[in-house]
């Protein structure tokens, strides 16, 4: 029995157990409500394309004899996911002919993008990559990545808008379950369809069948209805281009950056999971260095760890419901710090299988709780008037902290050794905890799920000012530079310039003067 099949069995068993528990414990019952079930369906369609592009595609290319240097182009497929906030304003505010009127803004965009994505995946599977003949395949792979990232923009916004306050955390968790279901289908499922050791259907048919994973989101969207999309200019006729651009592109940034504590919140989002991210970066190298057999690591991480991650994700919603947002963020952060202490003990103990299992289970359980809590927090920060743009921006910003700031992990491990390294990851998590305490003490983290009370119309009616517009543009340019520099491993000078541009833009957006009104 393959590892992926065992993981799938574990996954289904945990979901079945969760349904049983949900019938008896009130804090779990929202999992059985309509909207959390719908977000599970949305998650399946959101989760399958990235796995199909990265893990499954590289396996396929290796099977047909493509050299590893060429396969490395797959790194470029992550770029649309990283910078998707650039075109999120169009998805947020641009109506589509016929579709928006018939289905609403979110569902209209979802059905439109999914139709294109379905065609792109079929074409990708049919492009028959061979050594020296990769052009058509690469083009369809990039198109699929762009459409998949755009689908994520729509699904994330739609998920946030259909969930009620009391089911928000549960809907975020079930969305994660669905995402992992999509991962499993696009990974083990597609390979099983294609492989001669499975059904032997070939890669073109396998990719074509996997493309039907768009169907769960379609069914969920038809079940859910149009959601709570807010079009602030729905009844305004004759809007000028400049007005529309201000509303769609400038106002999402301005609305967020003019909130009380906005820059403290961004700093917190940036550093909250740095310690956890540093640990994840170096876990594999430490396991190899300690001499664990491959099968021990596979069973500990892919089976025990996978089960713990799903359980932790499921616990995250009632955990948040019991404690409120501020306490849940604090305690889940402290739990993730503690989990790294377990790896300190493992590093000191050496090659001990059950200590490895204990450390990985603890880490995955706490990470699962933290993932649900943090994803719910980011969702709650997004104003219902600019859901797609703000969530795309916040999730990209959080990714900077997880990747860029975790970069020095290898240097620290080399200098301090494994015990010292894991101790350092605990210390690295302290700034995030201090920022959280500061935000909480100033009232910038509420106990409820939604962290915004809506748009301040008076603030948005005020003139923006040329310097603030330049600041917003510099923020976007700097963030894009940071994300691309780390994604493509560009020169450090480009990274430095991007960070400087971002900092200057933030200062201008914050302090730039608006023009005087008569």
List the helices and strands and how they pair.
Layout: H1 3-24, H2 34-63, H3 68-71, H4 79-82, H5 88-93, H6 99-103, H7 105-126, H8 135-162, H9 168-194, H10 203-210, H11 215-224, H12 241-257, H13 262-271, H14 274-289, H15 294-323, H16 325-349, H17 353-381, H18 387-403, H19 409-428, H20 430-441, H21 457-461, H22 466-487, H23 492-511
Structure description:
The protein has 518 residues and is mainly alpha-helical. The protein has 23 helices and no strands. The radius of gyration is 23 Å and the shape is globular. The mean pLDDT is 84.
Brief digest:
Helices cover 75% and strands 0% of the residues.
Average pLDDT level: 84
Overall 3D form: globular
Number of helices: 23
Biggest sheet layout: none
What fraction strand? under 5%
Q: What is the number of E strands?
A: 0
Kindly report how far apart the N and C termini lie.
75 Å
Overall structural class, as computed from helix and strand content, comes to mainly alpha
Rg from Cα: 23 Å
The percent of residues in helical segments reads over 70%
């Amino acid at each position: 029995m393959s590892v992926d099949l065992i993981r799938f069995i574990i996954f289904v068993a945990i979901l079945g157990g969760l349904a049983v528990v949900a019938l008896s414990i009130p804090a779990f019952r929202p999992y059985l409500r309509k909207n959390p079930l719908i977000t599970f369906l949305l998650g399946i369609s959101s989760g399958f394309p990235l796995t199909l592009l990265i893990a499954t595609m590289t396996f396929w290319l290796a099977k047909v004899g493509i050299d590893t240097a060429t396969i490395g182009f797959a790194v470029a497929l992550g770029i649309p996911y990283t910078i998707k906030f650039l075109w999120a304003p169009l998805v947020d505010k641009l109506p589509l002919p016929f579709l928006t009127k018939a289905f609403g803004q979110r569902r209209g965009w979802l059905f439109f993008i999914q139709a294109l994505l379905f065609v792109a995946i079929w074409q990708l599977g049919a492009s028959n990559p061979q050594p020296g003949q990769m052009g058509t395949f690469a083009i369809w792979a990039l198109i699929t990545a762009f459409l998949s990232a755009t689908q994520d923009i729509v699904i994330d916004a739609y998920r946030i808008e259909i969930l009620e306050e009391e089911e928000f955390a549960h809907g975020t968790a079930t969305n994660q379950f669905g995402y992992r279901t999509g991962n499993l289908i696009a990974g083990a499922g597609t390979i099983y369809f294609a492989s001669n050791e499975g059904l032997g259907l070939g890669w073109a048919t396998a990719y074509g069948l996997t493309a039907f994973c768009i169907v769960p989101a379609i069914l969920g969207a038809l079940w859910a209805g149009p959601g709570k999309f807010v079009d602030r200019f729905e009844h305004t006729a004759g809007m000028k281009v400049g007005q529309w651009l201000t509303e769609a592109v400038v106002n999402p940034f301005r609305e967020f950056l003019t909130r009380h504590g906005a820059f403290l919140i961004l700093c917190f989002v940036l550093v909250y999971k740095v310690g956890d991210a540093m640990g994840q970066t170096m876990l594999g190298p430490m396991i190899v260095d300690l001499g664990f057999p491959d099968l021990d690591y596979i069973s500990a991480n892919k089976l025990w760890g996978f089960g713990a991650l799903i359980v932790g994700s499921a616990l995250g919603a009632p955990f948040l419901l019991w404690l409120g947002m501020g306490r849940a963020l604090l305690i889940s952060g402290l739990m993730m710090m503690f989990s790294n202490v377990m790896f300190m003990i493992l590093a000191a103990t050496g090659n001990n299988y059950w200590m490895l299992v204990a450390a990985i289970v603890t880490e995955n359980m706490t990470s699962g709780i933290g993932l649900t809590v943090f994803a719910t927090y980011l969702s709650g920060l997004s104003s219902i008037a600019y859901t797609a743009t703000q969530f795309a921006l916040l999730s990209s910003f959080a990714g900077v902290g997880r990747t860029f700031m975790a970069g020095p992990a290898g240097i620290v491990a080399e200098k301090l050794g494994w015990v010292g390294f894991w101790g350092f990851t605990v210390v690295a998590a302290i700034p995030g905890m201090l920022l959280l305490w500061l935000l909480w003490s100033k009232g910038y983290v509420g106990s409820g799920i939604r962290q915004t009370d809506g748009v301040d119309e008076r603030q948005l009616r005020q003139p923006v000012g040329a310097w603030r517009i330049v600041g917003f543009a510099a923020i976007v340019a700097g963030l894009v530079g940071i994300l691309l520099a780390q994604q493509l491993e560009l020169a450090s000078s480009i990274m430095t310039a991007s960070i400087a541009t971002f900092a200057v833009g933030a200062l201008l957006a914050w302090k730039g003067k608006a023009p005087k009104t008569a």
